[in-house]
Specification:
The complex is a heterodimer of chains A (140) and B (396). Chain A has 140 residues and is mainly β. In chain A, 8% of the residues lie in helices and 35% in strands. The two termini of chain A are 30 Å apart. Chain A has helices at residues 15-21, 110-113; strands at 27-31, 40-41, 56-60, 64-73, 87-94, 99-104, 119-125, 134-139. The longest helix of chain A is centred in the N-terminal third of the chain and has 7 residues, at 15-21. Chain B has 396 residues and is α/β, with parallel strands linked by helices. Classes of the chains: A mainly beta (140), B alpha/beta (396). At the A-B interface, strand 4, strand 5 and strand 6 of A face helix 4, helix 5 and strand 5 of B. Chain B: This is Thiolase C-terminal domain-containing protein.
Chain lengths: 140, 396
């Protein structure tokens, strides 16, 4: 089976995120600048994309949130996805205030069993021996 | 702001073939440049500003200048996806107005179809140096089309917009395509299932590519290209055809944002700025060339540029006003658009070409007495990082 595209390294901004997934932790950053008005940083960066501050703190998410929007891929020519059948790509808004791209899985019919605004919780999908596990979501 | 008329589109060419095997992107650019300069009545060595997106065989402004055989005093390599040419038109007209250049050349060439590039459905390639966004997006299998599908789904959820309403965009565009012999040839060459006018039901019955986007809401992948020559008012006076004035332009970007509204494009920032620049308002516009990568892209452009209020685009497009022979609002994508005429990857140049034809009275779906047109491009990915730039054109 062809593997999904894997995160590739060296890529120093996102490496700490992927390191944390080895412990099954979903992590995000907040800005340490007390004057920063928009402290949640995601996707990961070594700087704050709101104020330009260079000091950030890594936090672990509880892995709970809502589906902001989703689409169901019916046709993918990528070898890792083309035989999956319809699958949902989604933006999930985590309760801590960050929005991430992910998949919503463990539903029978992704078109009708997922709704925008529904509560979802984190689930890890193994990708095969030695490969990273991917953070995904399922109905809460 | 008072309207100024310092720079004009004086020459255009649209490369006719949508399937062009054995021809390179560079050859399409050179052939289009030659014909566009001929259209303007200008010579090869009149060009003193060369614009390039750098996406054609990895040659940018320096390489293309050498290849063409030009010695520009100004080069611009702006590359922001499909709307690169509206950004470049804005830069060219600004530089010409400031006296830094007199004749600017914008060219496009692509062999996306012949290269069999699955632009919308391939997903990530895993090639090249990794970036933060590669690493945070690629593993989940988002195809380009599903990225736009997420915007459409949210629009339907947030505003109650229906599939039937989105389909009106495809129906009007095909109506125009059937009047454009080049678009008919394109659909034939690309083996469209039906080369005919379509109904909203046809759109809803077409297969789902990435829910909620149907096949007939998605642009084609063709070969093609073209060229635009922009000149100062002094040069324009002596050109073969009437100048088409660039009276307004603006640029903006938008990204996936924590807590942001994905249904609002960067056009909500650049649209009002462009209209202010031009000193005109949306209700004066006769022709709207809006980047139709997908139906949802057009819906967002219509709303964000202010042709109707945000969220009311569904009702707006359902009034029967999009076709060139209907009153009540600007005609939409009168060449047949990316949905039904051509889309080789970066369609922005074709928006300028057809808007210019309308201002000259040369369109195959000519709007009677058309005086003002908007060409609004959207580049990148609407649901993620993207750029939106309107160019506002006026007939002489």
């Amino acid at each position: 089976m062809t593997l999904r595209p894997q995160p590739r390294f060296p890529e120093p901004d996102t490496e700490p995120f992927w390191e944390a997934t080895k412990e099954r932790n979903l992590v995000y950053q907040t800005c340490d600048n007390p004057d920063c008005t928009d402290k949640v940083i995601f996707y990961p960066r070594a700087h704050c994309n709101s104020c330009g501050g260079l000091k950030t703190t890594w936090n672990t998410s509880k892995g709970e949130g809502v589906v902001y929007t989703y689409s169901v891929v019916m046709q993918s020519r990528h070898p890792a996805f083309k035989d999956l059948g319809p699958y949902a790509v989604a933006y999930v808004d985590l309760d801590e205030g960050f929005r991430m791209m992910t998949n919503v899985i463990n539903v029978d019919n992704p078109i009708s069993d997922i709704q925008i605004g529904m509560r979802v919780k984190l689930v890890w999908q193994e990708q095969g021996e030695g490969e990273i596990a991917l953070p995904m979501f399922e109905p809460a | 702001m008072a309207q100024t008329r310092e720079a004009a589109i004086v020459g255009i060419h649209e490369y006719p073939l949508r399937v062009a095997p054995g021809v390179s992107a560079l050859q399409i650019k050179a052939a289009s440049a030659s014909k566009a300069l001929e259209d303007a009545g200008l010579s090869w060595q009149d060009v003193d500003a060369v614009f390039d997106t750098g996406s054609h065989q990895n040659i940018g402004g320096l390489g293309i200048s050498e290849y063409l055989g030009m010695n520009p005093r100004l080069i611009d390599n702006t590359s922001v996806g499909g709307t690169s040419y509206e950004f470049q038109a804005h830069h060219a007209s600004t530089m010409i107005a400031s006296g830094k250049a007199n004749v600017a050349l914008l060219t496009y060439g692509s062999t996306a179809h012949s290269d069999r590039r699955a632009i919308g459905t391939a997903g990530a390639t895993g090639q090249g140096s990794p970036t933060p966004f590669n690493n945070m997006e690629d593993p989940w299998g988002m195809t380009l089309i599903s990225g736009y599908g997420m915007v459409k789904a949210r629009h339907m959820h947030q505003y109650g917009t229906t599939n039937e309403q989105f389909a009106e965009i495809s129906v009007a565009t095909r109506y125009h395509a059937m009047r454009n012999p080049e678009a008919v040839k394109a659909m034939t060459a690309l083996e469209f299932v039906g080369v005919n006018e379509i109904t909203t039901q046809d759109v809803l019955d077409s297969r789902m590519i990435a829910w909620p986007l149907h096949l007939l809401e998605c642009c084609m992948v063709s070969d093609g290209g073209g060229a635009v020559v922009i000149a100062s008012k002094e040069v324009a006076k002596n050109c073969k055809k009437s100048p088409v004035w660039i009276i307004g332009g603006a640029e903006a970007t938008k990204y996936r944002e924590n807590g942001g509204d994905i249904t609002v494009s960067a056009g909500a920032q650049s649209g009002p700025r462009a209209f202010e620049d031009a000193g005109v308002s949306p209700n004066e516009i006769d022709v709207l060339m809006a980047y139709d990568s997908f139906s949802i892209t057009v819906m967002c452009m219509i709303e964000d540029l202010g042709f109707c209020k945000k969220g009311e685009g569904g009702d707006y497009v359902s009034q029967g006003i999009l076709k060139f022979d209907q009153k009540g609002g600007p005609a939409l994508n009168t060449d047949g658009g990316g949905l039904s005429s051509n889309h080789p990857g970066e369609r922005g140049i074709f928006l300028l070409l057809e808007a210019t034809r309308q201002m000259r009275g040369e369109s195959t779906s000519q709007v009677d007495g058309a005086k003002l047109a908007v060409a609004v491009g959207n580049g990148g990915q609407l649901g993620a990082r993207h750029a939106t730039s309107p160019t506002i054109l006026a007939a002489d």
